[in-house]
Amino acid sequence: LKSSIKSIQKDIREFASHSTSDRIKQFVNKEDKITTSNISNRDQSSQLDRLEKYVLTLKTISQKLDAKINFENVDDLLLKARNQVNDGTENPSETIIELKSSIKSIQKDIREFASHSAYDRLKQFVDRQLDRLEKKLDKAKEFGADQNQINKAHELIDEIKALIDKNQINDAKIVFHELHKLLKNIQYSVG
């Protein structure tokens, strides 16, 4: 009887020992997972903070350009990702990837808008300058400038306008230099 009691006590000690050891291992593993999860959540939270600040910058640029870009999808994704990080119930990685993709799309839209806007401003500037030059040519004609040179200048002005309309800016610059030389000749002939 004593030997069976000792055997049972030994089994109980081993069982208790294994149970405690297993419990400790489970607790340590659980702590590692929680720590990793917290680090991951902190990383994702700070990543969301950076993305949110960047979206605010894009909104400011969009407003300054009067680009009228829709940020609803990005705002919804930011909110969804923020809730996922705070709740810890879902992994926000896919939402963050989708958010980054939407932000890239908005960046592209802003660049295109800015490019078109710059082109429009350039076109307006060139048109004003060419109108001013045409008025000077009319005055030069009144002062007796060579009609062939004036006709050639009007042809160059028309060519510049056509090149600008085709967005061939570099070619328009070359023709403009020709026009500039011709205008100097007309100016010298009128005196």
Layout of secondary structure:
Layout lengths: L1 H64 L6 H16 L5 H50 L4 H19 L3 H22 L1
Helix pairs in contact: 1-2, 1-3, 2-3, 3-4, 4-5
Describe the protein:
Helix content is 90%, strand content 0%. It is built from five helices and no strands. It is an all-alpha fold and 191 residues long.
Quick structural gist:
This protein has 191 residues and is mostly helical.
Total helices: the number is: 5
Rounded average pLDDT: 81
- The Cα radius of gyration reads 37 Å
Order of helices and strands: HHHHH
**What class do helices, strands and sheet pairing give?**
mainly alpha
Total beta strand runs: 0
Q: Show unreliable segments.
A: 23-39
Roughly how many Å apart are the termini? 135 Å
Approximately how much beta-strand content do the residues carry? under 5%
Helix content: over 70%
Shape: rod-shaped
Query: What does the largest sheet look like?
Result: none
Task: Provide key terms for this protein.
rod-shaped; 90% helix; 191 residues; 5 helices; mainly alpha
